[in-house]
Structures are given as structure tokens and as C-alpha cells.
Amino acid sequence: MWPVALGMGHWRDVLSWLRWLLLLLSMACVSVHTTTDFLQHWPVPYKRFEFRPKNDPYCQAKYTFCPTGYADGSIPVTKNEDIIQVFRLQAPVWEFKYGDLLGHFKIMHDAIGFSSSLTGKNYTAEWYELFQLGNCTFPHLRPNMEEPFWCNQGAACFYEGIDDNHWKSNGTLVPIATMSGAIFNSMAKWLKEDNDTGIYYQTWNVRASPEFNSSVWFDSYDCASFVLRTYQKLFELGATFNRKVQTNYTRLLLYSGEPTYLGNGTMIFGQHGNKSLALDIQKFYILFRPHQSWKELFLSILDIYYKVTMDKMFYFFFNFEYWYLPLKFPYIKVVYDEIPLPS
Q: Global pTM?
């Protein structure tokens, strides 16, 4: 039940939460097993696949994915003796639509730029959602379908050119490394394999607390993690980085006690699933549904605030399985942490 009245302190908490909840909503996108049933290693490893599945026709993107990228997903081969300069690229999320608005909250998108000394051509590599961020963060509850439906694929986009104005106007475009054409060609082969086997986007990073060495339950798999693992691969291949350049990345964090494993879709929503748990998960995710009226949106925000701060709970989807998160203060936070370049 909702309390009859809220004091000024509580209202300040509500107003603080509204900022984050409005952001989240604008993106919209068997027996229970516990972690004591098996030896769980943290963080839970991101599951990779043998191939990328075809897109479901139900999943539709408002903005076309990788409109100027190479149609076959290939990356041009360069001469081994070429010298390639590597650039750090960062700009506010949705900068093309809202300018620097989300930059004020340090909500940034990351990419990598490359420049060939032999040809003078520039290239950009980035990794993002096929069907926009909301669909990767929250599912759709479709009529006559018990199980939530996810449109959460993500992929790499490699295209010719670097949009200097986009990255410089409200963000960052700075050289960070040099490498040979041979290293670039090896990176291209690795990037294709990485892209074919890492197929879905994961928005959240789940930790035990804001403390530096706190336990990590789940890592995000997004544009920043793509840049970080590409930098690491380039370093392993022999690229030389300028560690004097400071590099920060945006993370959307949930703070939780040790998660409880609930099961996959069949275990929960199947014919012999857990009907009570299935209903609870449906009730949770319906609060994040897209296309709500202003009245519905307001009521959903209040319900989400209550579930997160009072019930201290969150149903989390990872590796196509569901987990229960016993949330802890400060519950949800956007951070912009420094992660140094590899050395």
C-alpha cells in the first residue's frame, strides 16, 4: 500500500528518482533455484553463441541500424606496412537528436576511429542496439504470450568516415594509439568473430555497493565494453597506447545483495512453470511498457519507485535467464568512471 503522506525528505527522494526513472521509461525499451543449488561464479560470464540469429519481424527499429556500414559486414583490408592512427570517440547519447542534453548527466556513447596514413581514409567502429536502447533494457508483453518478448540484439557497425562535428561538438575526438596495417587486419578478423558470437545488448552493470572493490554480479555488454575489449585486443596484438589520455566511461548501475537464480523462460513461463513467479515478473515489466499516457506514466513511476526503494526488488534478465535482485541503497546510479588505457 502507498503511504498516505510523504514528508519533505521523502519528496526530495522522489524528485531525485524521477530524473532516472523518466530516463529509463523514455528508453522503452518449476521450483525456484537459488545460488546455493550450485557453485556460482561472479560475475556471471556473458554467454556467447555459435551464430547470430535472424531478426524477428516483431522487432522494429525507429532508426535504421548502421545505415552507412558495409552491407556484408566486412572490414576493408589494409596493407601490412600501413600506419593506422586510433582515435577515442565519445559523444552524448542521442546527440543527433538532443545535442548535449544527456552529456550534462555524463550519459555518453563510445566508439573507435581509425585513420590510414597510406590511403588517407578514415573509419569508425561502434557497437550498439539493433532496436534502440529501450528494447534492450525492458521486454514487450505481447497479447496471448505468457513469456516476455525481448528485442535485445546488439551488434558492431563499421563504416567509412569519421563525423568530426558529431564527436567534437559535444564530446571527444582524440588520438590514443598507433599500429601497423597488419595489426589492423588481425583486429578486423577478431572483430567479426566477436560480433558473430556476442549477439545481445546488456544495459545494466550490477554490483554489491558503490565501494571500489565491491562484488560485481553482472557486467554490462554495451558500447563502452566493446571499446574496452577492442582496446585490450589491440594492445595484445602490439598497438602502442598513449596512457596520458584519460578515458572515462558511462555505466548504468544497479546495487544489489547476492542475486537469486530463477530460471529460463521455459522453467518460469512454460506449461509446468511457476505461475505465481511468472505473474510477478509480468507485473514488474508492465510498468516499463512503451507508449503510456501521461497518467499511466506517472502511476508507473510511482509504482517503480515503491518497488525499488520500499520492496527493494528488481527482476533481471541476463543470458536469457531471469534473476531476482534484492536491491540495496543507492539502488540505481549513473556513473562516469575512469578506466585507463591498456599498458
A: 0.86
